[in-house]
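Data card: per-record layout.
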Amino acid sequence: MTDISTTAATGPSGDGSVAARIKSKHQGRRKPIELPVPRFEGDVIVQCDEASPKAIQAQARKTPVLGFADLLASCCREILLIDPTTGRKFPAREDINSSTPVKFDSRLADMFGIAGGDPTQIVMQIFGSDTAIIGAGTRLLNWSTGADLDTADSEEVEELAGEPHAAT
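The structure for this 168-residue chain is written out next.
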């Protein structure tokens, strides 16, 4: 009889830790989350990577609005725009040939004619309300920690399962 602790540590065929293979299989598999900015009715989207444990701890030590604004700024991969006439999504860029993503920086402030400042201040100006910042920050935090996986809606379940949703 095989000792389960030995199997978990070395794998059933002795080719390495089962846990290490699972971690390797799933590491980096989640696509960045896209958070619409309510002030712009979804025409501006913040694409974010997962928050690090350090960023989550830093957020928890601040007031909710400031903490979530910091978290959104630190996790922002890039800002996306939706063309109102075509509905196409594209990266916000000053120059079409630029490969540097626009984040919560002076380029974004210039695009929307808002006062500059540090990234957290720009988040606060772009989102425009405490409620919007807390809502987006909460979604980012839940997604980063996996809490969203416990509350997937039917469309997310379909996507994960690869099966169409049965009409009710």
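Known properties of this structure: The mean pLDDT is 82. Residues 130-145 form the longest helix (16 residues).

See the next section for split statistics.
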